[in-house]
Specification:
Length: about 260
């Protein structure tokens, strides 16, 4: 409770208070893998009579802030849902703008990410991405491949049902060619065919903007994950909100451990 009171009083972006908070949160187990559905960018813009793309741009700046905090907290993997396979249905100008955001983000922040030992990764269908988008991301992945701090994993052109079907097709192929026997297939082996094979399942899922659904995001991987929903729109999401989500996670873990 004391934690929370100090947190809410910290409206003036006092960095020493944030630093104290980070130390406080780190005394209890921090989730190793946090996944976020960054929703509410369009709504944020609409409320201000701005074009939707203004909301996306503001949301991009929040990605930087939250990445920094996740790294400081010792979170190992941060998976961010940046673009779904459904998002191609949006107006062309919005899609074109979204496909420029990875370049803009990396153009501004890649030196910082390298400096802070962050490793950039991407999961999703690369073939449909414009080459300029893919090149920027692949360069960032190459430039950060030896970093062993936070893994910043962007879900881009990602859809979970397609991922599961593709994994199933690969399983069938390996079965046909004799690499995999029916008796060998179990949950762990199946997981290794998914796009997330390098990562453990998320410990905590956050969705902003008041929507209480998964929208085809990591359906297999979220089977045992703790969920935290907030009405805060992604462009308004701040360090204190991530800390609040992690404290809620830690309280649940503590209660669960007590039984
Ligand atoms: C996007 C900003 C965040 C709110 C959600 C939608 C808009 C960062 C990236 C990104 C992706 C890959 C990468 C580096 C940065 C991004 C898209 C949208 C498509 F390697 N933010 N952001 N990509 N938004």
């Amino acid at each position: 409770m004391f934690n929370k009171i100090r947190l809410w009083k910290n409206q003036n972006n006092n960095s020493s208070t944030l630093r104290e908070h980070i130390e406080e949160v780190k005394k209890l187990p921090v989730p190793e893998h946090v996944a976020i559905i960054m929703d509410g960018n369009g709504r944020w813009a609409k409320k201000r009579a701005l074009p939707r793309i203004a909301g996306h741009h503001e949301g991009m700046k929040v990605v930087r802030k939250i990445t920094k905090l996740a790294n400081a907290l010792g979170i190992k993997t941060l998976t961010l849902y940046a673009f779904s396979t459904e998002n191609w249905k949006r107006p062309k100008n919005e899609v074109d703008y979204l496909m420029k955001l990875p370049e803009e983000f990396l153009g501004t922040f890649l030196p910082e990410l390298i400096d802070e030992n962050v490793k950039v990764e991407m999961m999703g269908y690369k073939d449909q991405l414009p080459v300029h988008t893919l090149h920027a991301i692949e360069k960032a992945m190459e430039d950060t491949k030896d970093n062993d701090g936070l893994v910043l994993n962007f879900a881009l052109n990602y859809g979970s049902r397609s991922e599961i079907i593709d994994a199933t097709k690969k399983v069938l192929n390996d079965y046909k060619s004799g690499i995999l026997k029916e008796s060998e297939l179990n949950e762990e082996v199946f997981s290794s065919y998914l796009m997330t094979s390098d990562h453990k399942d998320p410990d905590l899922l956050i969705r902003t903007s008041g929507e209480i659904r998964l929208s085809n995001f990591m359906l297999w991987q979220l089977a045992y994950t703790e969920f935290w929903f907030t009405d805060v729109l992604w462009p308004d999401f701040r360090e204190k909100h991530l800390i609040e989500a992690i404290e809620a996670y830690q309280n649940r873990q503590r209660r669960f451990g007590g039984i």
